[in-house]
Amino acid sequence: RAAYGVSEPNGLAVDMSMSVHVHGDVPAGSTAPSWEGKYLDPNHPGCERKISVNGLEVTIEGADGKPGPGCGTGNTLDAWTLTAKLKSAGADEVLIDFSPKGGPKDLLGKWDGDGIKFPDGNKWTKIG
User: Cα 73 to the chain's mean position, in Å?
Assistant: First the structure.
């Protein structure tokens, strides 16, 4: 038997190697998400979403329009700041405290390649 493989009777080797993904961490060989930047939120068109990271601590600054849902003409802006945490420097998940906006205290956001996907299906797409 070869390392990480199983020899078959016909002389061919079957690759039995596998990668292990620890929940919340980026798999080996992948690039860690770059959380910092500006995002678009389709549930609040034109409203600011800006993320900054300091170690494992995350700050999200934004605004919502009233009456909404967007931040266009005729809406007054309601600015807010949220805090969040990363499990590790290379984490692909973030726990966001939406309680200052009346939401859940620990909402899981998952990096999906070009933005943050939330359990309700909403996605903030990174734009800069």
Answer: 30
Rounded to an integer, what distance in angstroms lies between the CA atom of residue 2 and that of residue 12?
Answer: 11
Element (H, E) at 67: none
Backbone φ and ψ for 99, nearest 5 degrees, come out as -60, -30
pLDDT tens sequence across 80-127: 999 999 999 999 999 999 999 999 999 999 999 999 999 999 999 999
Tokens of 16: 């039995």
Rounded Cα distance between 27 and 121, Å, is 23
Cα–Cα distance, 64 to 58 (Å, whole number): 19
Question: What is d(CA 46, CA 109) in angstroms, rounded to the nearest whole number?
Answer: 21
* Alpha-carbon span 21 to 122, nearest angstrom: 24
User: Cα separation of 30 and 46, whole Å?
Assistant: 31
Instruction: Check whether the bond before 69 is cis (ω within 30° of 0).
Output: yes
